[in-house]
Amino acid sequence: MKPITSMRYIPTKQQLKERCTTVSAWELPKQKSALAPEHVWTNEDMDPVKPENQTWTLWTWMAYWATDTINLGTWETASAILAVGLSWREAIPAIVVGTTCVAIPMVLNGAIGAKMHIPFSVAIRSSFGYYLAYFCIVSRSILAMFWLGIQGANGAQCMTIMIQSIWPSYGNIPNHIAAGQGITTQGMISYFLFWIIQLPLLLIPPTNLKYLFTAKLIAAPITALATMGWCVHKAGGSGNIFALKATVSGSTKAYLFLSSMSSVTGSWATLACNIPDFSRYARSSKGQFIQLPFLPIIFTLCAVIGIVTTSATGVIYGELIWNPLDIIAKWMEMGHGGRAAAFFAATSWYIAQVGTNITANSISAANDLTVLFPRYVNIERGCIIAAIIGGWVIVPWKIISSASTFLAFMGGYAVFLAPIAGIMASDYWFIKKQNYDVPALYNPDGRYRFWNGINWRALLALIVAVSPNLPGLGYSIGMNADGTDSVNISQGAKNLYTFDWLFGFVTSIVVYTACSLIFPAPASLVSETTFGHDIDAPGSDVESVREGEVLGEKHGHHGKDFGNVDAVDIGTDFHTHNHEKSVAAHAHQA
Questions:
Q1: Quick check: 231 and 357 in contact, CB under 8 A?
Q2: Rounded to an integer, what distance in angstroms lies between the CA atom of residue 203 and that of residue 131?
């Protein structure tokens, strides 16, 4: 039998000693790259995806969104809309319009990864500049780690139901944690088990996520439909929620509709930016366009299931229950059969929560950390670091229980992410005309340096798009727990904040495009795409030719493959020539 230290993630005794005494022991081996200059530290997880690892097809995209949208948050989305006074007649259109709005930047920015096979943290340099891009990367990574923890704290309830359905006495564990900590002893045990079981799942390579997608695609929809079917059958119908009418009217109703639409859109604001982290694994650049119709359809279906089920619970229990886990918890009072049903249903929602955490949060944060700290962090380490920070450092259970102002701030973070998505999309489609010099994206002195690593056009567009919404963000954060105002702003500023994401996205596109056309940066423009691992085929617009097939070579895998492995040298003369052009271009940069 092999010793445990021979496993990839288990360090030897000597390694443990060194890592406990010196930071340099954590350094990754400096890896050869055909893209980054010698003086720039990089690692293989930042490089373009090798052709043989571009495995995502049309069906992978459909499975991805079917699994990512079917979760507890989507189920409860409609509840927030109905709670403010709108009816289902307004809730469903708000969900459809909101998800359609966010599907547009998903497709626009997803095309970057599908063609260039590079992550968001590298692609963003084309529009923001090599160093200003770090602001976007840090912003996105903080939000991803925050929601990684919040989703885990919410998912701990799944673990509680799973354990209690097998051992009912689990519900009688005495509490030894102070009331002000926002969690009980039982809750902490459940949360730790959720986190520790989730941890190895976070390390699944993106190229192998299709297996997790398949498991979630089977479990979550069946559980959602079964829960709805049981509730409707038990209630003898779907209840009277579809007979209810909106309790608001006029301009108030209009702004509440915009606010609801923006909240739906804002929930996907992070993914609208970092979708290249997933589309980079696409086999064909055309497959990712399925996101445009599929995302609104699947999101709306899940929300409707939530509305119907909740309405039926009003008949069964005399109160509307929006959280499906609260419904499942009541099954445990129905004997052995009820407990068995509760266990399998809770397991399905557990898989759903973990799947969402992987696709929407873990991989996003890990990709960012590889760019921020390439000397020490690869995607594997990034996933672990994100899990520790998001799961424990930010104390997510306490945030959920008490920090309403912090939640309001993080919910309003779409104010910053919407312009980032808009600038990125307009740069690729309107300014760069779908052509990047990929090797130059890895060069701090290359054509995308702009002025000292900052593209002032992107900075100006960001400021113009964000500034008008800052009063509304401050108002939202400063609101008291009883709903009274602690910050006074104009009604116009309040109304503008109701559709903050849409305003930021559209405004950033207009300002950035106008500035880039009026004050162009010629050195950053190329007439043809220069790929990294891929070679552009004549007459091909967005499809890439497999480099290994062209050169008649096959590149092997080294250990666990996250899809972006050792860079392939595509010619010293080629890169010397490109570096000389980049230096010369920098002298003429705007």
A1: no
A2: 29
Q: What angle do CA 35, 37, 40 make, to 5 degrees?
A: 110
Does residue 85 come out as left (phi exceeding 0), alpha (psi in the -120 to 50 range) or beta? left
Q: Is the distance from CB of 485 to CB of 475 less than 8 angstroms?
A: yes
Transcribe 458-488 into DSSP letters.
HHHHHHHHHGGGHHHHHHHHH--TTS--SS-
For residue 557, count CB atoms less than 10 angstroms from its CB and return exposed for 0-12, middle for 13-18, buried for 19 or more.
exposed
* Percent of the chain residues past pLDDT 90, beyond the cut: 41
CA distance 417 to 504: 8
Going by C-alpha positions, the residue among 262, 279, 340 that lies closest to residue 497 is 262
Grouping H, G, I as helix, E, B as strand and the rest as coil, residue 56 is: strand
- The candidate with the shortest Cα–Cα distance to 117, out of 475, 570, 564, is 564
Query: Of 531, 572, 558, whose CA–CA distance to 51 is shortest?
Result: 531
SS3 state at 358: helix
Q: In one letter, which amino acid is 417?
A: L
Tokens standing for 496? 């503008």
DSSP reduced 3-state for 530: strand
Calpha distance 478→461 (Å, rounded): 27
Number of other residues whose CB lies within 10 A of the CB of residue 56: 27
Question: Could you tell me the two tokens for 434?
Answer: 């779908």
Q: For position 127, what pLDDT does the model report?
A: 97
Range with the poorest average pLDDT among 139-143, 433-437, 456-460:
139-143
CA distance 417 to 502: 11
Helix (H, G, I), strand (E, B) or coil at 513: helix
**58-69 and 209-235 helices, crossing angle to 10°:** 50
368-401 confidence digits (pLDDT tens):
998 899 889 988 899 999 999 999 998 888 877 7
Residue 150 near residue 393 (C-beta atoms within 8 A)? no
Contact assessment for residue 203 and residue 561, using Cβ atoms and an 8 Å cutoff:
no
* Residue 182: band (very low, low, confident or very high) from pLDDT cuts 50, 70, 90: confident
Please tell me the distance from the alpha carbon of residue 124 to that of residue 222, in angstroms, as a whole number: 39
- Tallying the residues shown for the chain, one arrives at 590
What CA dihedral angle connects 223, 227, 230 and 235, to 10 degrees?
-170
Query: Among residues 50, 167, 178, which one has the least CA distance to residue 546?
Result: 50
Residue 1 has pLDDT above 50, yes or no: no
Of 46 and 444, the one with more pLDDT: 444
Average pLDDT in the 276-298 region?
91
Q: What is the DSSP string of 178-194?
A: -GGGS--HHHHHHHHHH
Higher pLDDT, 477 or 282: 282
Spatial distance between the Cα atoms of 384 and 405, rounded to a whole number of angstroms: 28
Between CA 236 and CA 228 the distance in angstroms is 12
Q: Residue for token digits 């547009």?
A: 104
